[in-house]
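Quick one: structure for this chain?
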Amino acid sequence: MSQEQSGKAPLIEVRDVERVYHQGEVEVRALRGVNLRIEAGEFSALAGPSGSGKTTLLNMVGCLDSPTSGEVLVEGEAISGMTRSEAAEYRLGHIGFVFQAYNLIPVLTAWENAEFVLLMQGVGLEERHSILDPLFERVGLADYKDRKPHEMSGGQQQRVAVVRALGSRPKIVLADEPTANLDSATSASLLELMAELNEERGVTFVFSTHDEMVIERAHRVVRLDSGCVVGDERRDV
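Got it. Here's what it folds into:
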């Protein structure tokens, strides 16, 4: 049965989204009439060369940017017209982020970085431990909780970022070039972890990437070029 027949909205829907930037007198069209539907539980990659619009599209879904025209909906609710405070509150409760540059707070330990979102959500200490301790075990960093970012490798920092993203119990995890700064072995291990969590917990993952390893592991690959969707492939992996 199709979505239209079932009446069920996709988890994420992008409708005719355009994003135009102005750099001085130059107009840059980062997205050009993009339409996209992503179902709950997908493990998807937005693929394309630098400047193709994949990070801009990811930022639209994550309420980090707004379309010039068109709209973005999550579970049928328009999120693209939210105010800054509404968008911040929405991100806090619904979306986990894994960034290329890790975005860990340098003065905080791995544990403090991971619990930061939960603290903002008002989660108590005992519950924070019940959520985060198993995740630190899962990513192999149970003995690294007291280390600060500069005391960890890039792969270890990215794993802390994954714990932070998943610890907030989001419906959606958005990962922007998460393997860009990692060696191939670390990248493979990180992707395996995220694939397992996708399978076990049903968390929806959307990556922006040009890494062939990520593209090969994705169950769906949406290809962008010059701000347009130019391909959409679903496959069994």
